[in-house]
Batch of 2 targets.
Target 1
Amino acid sequence: MTKRLGGVYAAYLVFAIVFFGPVLFMLWSSLRNNVDITGSLFNIGSPLTLENFTNLFERFAFGRYIANSFIVAGGSTILGLVLGAPAAYVIVRRKLAALGFVTLLARMAPGVLFVLPLFVLSIRIGGPDSVALNYALLIVAHLIITLPLCIWLLVPFFEEIPISIEESTLIDGANAWQRFLRIALPLALPGLSVALTLSFIFSWNYFLFALALANERTLPLTVIAFNFIGQGSNDFGGLMAASTLISAPALLLTIFAQRWLVRGITGGAVK
Amino acid sequence: MSDLMTKSPAASGSANAGPGAGAPPPRRRRVDPTARGVWPFALPAVLVTAVLVLVPIAYTIWLSVSDRQSDGTNSGFLGFANYAEMFDNPQFWNSLKITLFLFVVCLLVETLLGLALGYVMSLDVPGRRIFQGMMLVPAITASVAVGLVWLLIMDPSLGAANQILAKVGIDPVVWLGDPDIAPWSIALVDIWQWTPFMALIISAGIRSLPEEPFEAAALDGASGWRTAWNIGLPLLRPVLTVAMLLRTVDLVRFFDTIYIMTQGGPVNSTNTLNVYGYNAGFVDHEPSYAAALQVALLVLVIMIAGGFTWFRQRASR
């Protein structure tokens, strides 16, 4: 038995180095100065500093970029849940497999397909010049990601609610909306947490729409970090600090909400 | 922890009936009283999906058969000239080749490596949750961050990859600057980012497998490998195909990491259909030609996903 345990932990170590090593490398590099980053990888004792992070906030409006990312990811996630939860409920109760399939189609369409029409629309309604319009456009664009995802994630949770619980409320004369709001939704609360977590992360991470649609004042973290490379920046410490900030929600949720993340990722595939 | 295993069997029976043995007998047309009056709830989502998904697709198809200029004027219906130009352009065929190359290489490696990692992750040993947490990180880290880190790792002169190679006496590799190597480097990054995702699904699948067939095989004295091949893999097939389908769709429309790391270069060696389509629209300012490329990409995604689904249904029959 101990021999088998040893084998498992040896495999753990190899996989951890390969798949988690680069993440550690990013965190570590964000705390080193540029001379050390571009120096030897094996100089493990090099001094650590928070300078890369303070530089980002002093030289660029990084607080604003973080706020922008929160507005777009938060807005599109809330809208996705508000629209997606009732839809998922209907798909389950009326067994509308076809509607479920359409939402799957929406997941399959390549993002590039939506950018051009959205860009044309944005120009036509004055999106590039108005901050409020630009936020609205970005939130709506990200709904293309969050809405199908929320529906896909919530369906299995509504399926788990036994019909008998809802049938018992029919006697009380509750209408459909009351049943949904008072019975089904509270019972699907774990599903809402799963959908909220995963949908926020995917929206936060998404890069393409903001790349084409955002203006100077609505740029999210992902695009500003990409623009750094375009400027030929070899401030690797700054780049790694920016990467660390972009990854922060994902890293924090892995620590505090791992259960929900795992259920979300495996939910649609493993029943 | 055990929720994956205790998930109600009723759930799998009601939706698409899989290969599930012992499915409940189909109830004939009994109208579920709780289903009455619920359909209007779906209306907002249906409307929003229609406007957000179908309208842009329709508009892109219109663009692809008309002649929009970069200044926004459109001289109207043009027929299939953009498609003719696309089929005549060697860059289109090159992009198609690169898209399929990345799709085949990444899916193959991610599935095989995912099976190995998934098996390790499914074992009940102390510390399993911590390990699982670490493996979760690559898939949920933003592609921009992934791209930036790998740019630094693959830097030709001071990158970590070449430093490690130097330690074991291998000459430095020009990871992203050589057209022959760059597609493999991009594949490597995708494999790094998404193998753990495959493994996570596979591991959940393994943990939800019934125990009886394995106990029976052990009683018969079958070896571990034989049991895995003859019993484990067939039982795992439904889960495996869903995981592969999810990856397939994402691989065909692979964009973020490539755009961040190479923008399609060097010498178009990583210029997938998706990157090519984006650049045609937003760098070369040829919206109608870009639209034709994007329609071609959509058709490709649907063809591959459709083929996959057909294969899956045939296999489960």
Target 2
Amino acid sequence: MSFPENLRYTKTHEWAKQDGKRIRVGITDYAQKEISDVVFAELPKLNQEVEQGKPMAIVESVKAAFDIYAPVSGKVVAVNKGIEANPALINQDCYQQGWLAEIEANKESEWQQLMTTAAYEQHIQQSVK
Amino acid sequence: MNVQTLPLHEEHAALGAKFGTFGVWQVPLYYSSILEEHERVRRRAGLFDVSHMGAYRVEGPKAEYYLDRLITRRLVGVEAGRAVYSPICREDGGILDDIIVYKVRSDRFWVIVNAANAAKDYEWLHSHLEDGVKLSDLSREMGLLALQGPASVPIAARVLGHDFFKLGNYRFQEWQGGIVARTGYTGEIGLEILLPHKEIARWWAALIKGGKQDGLIPVGFAARDTLRLEAGMLLYGQDMDEEVDPFAAGIGWTVDLKKNAFVGKEAILKRRQNSKRQLVGIEVVDRGIPRHGCEIYRNQKKIGAVTSGSFSPTLKKNIALGYVTIENAEIGTEVEISLRDRFLKALVVKLPFYRSSQGV
């Protein structure tokens, strides 16, 4: 499993990538493996307000539906239409083509609360135990 | 809850299985990918360990009449070597379980039942025992493998060393202290192999190894569920239970009304005439996967609920089984499924959703 150093992570296994105020969001390699084959994704609507730690999207495997939580609060400014047509991209390429949405963050401090790669790796090891 | 593991648990772990629970059983959900395993069974072959299921032996001069009185289908007069799928019903017509009875001879039968119902079924069978019938619970001694998919034919011939496909559908023969039957829960041709625990590891290994060249892979319970759903087969405890009778559950064909008395007969007949709801197949038109418990509406009025729902890997559509009020059960009826904060457009469709070209 890989967890790129340029990203930040949540306890609920989302990744976040910062580009100015825009935060791109997806699920981690660990999450996509746990969920297994993704067959459906329900993305937030453009301009929808999301709140840190609250559900913003749903990813479904053959077996079940999983809530995806917003890593930061703000307004949804982009969604990845590509994965509505081909949800398997979330499994195949979770950090690039499998991104879910972009949020225009409205609280700078929230980014600082997210985990670094090292902290997230430790978090996973603990949750596996 | 006392979690139980399958006799081949270590083998599954070695194959990289991701485990989950099914009732009290810890079972492999999948090994590689649910979608891949599903597709492999449709196109090539898959091997399942379904040793959680209950297995009883019923013997004695009165065994045939005894079982015939408990199941809704006819057993008396059926030729030896036949496997008979049938519900067993309570006096009030509610389905206690759906089982398969294997007739070895008129005084010797195997009965395979759903794992979750095994204790309840045994109690039921036991409470109806009569002189001249011996009932043995061999669930702890027997395991069950399912070899399913079109490539099962060459694999069985090569690995098991016998052409079991000479047997017709729902026929079986005794083998290695158990039986091999032309049955399954996937909608593909295949075999179910009941074996004593001491034999099962060796045949599992032989099939995994020897089936590889024909594309066989181990398949977990997740794909088993999507395969059976596409084939329109019901899961007890989800698509039917003690509240419904065989007609409401869409398996009225298993009720032999010409048969003399059997447990539940009068009640089933009465319920059939006053039937209020019916199990139907549903195909979703809008985007969204219906799940167990989603309510079904028509013209803003609640008419039922989904009992099983999934993405169909073969059809690439979202499908469901569910109960609706009888007047809304007709094929082509437009319904809506409540999912989270929306309503999904859906249609009542004919079952099964998928039928193998090999005529299973």
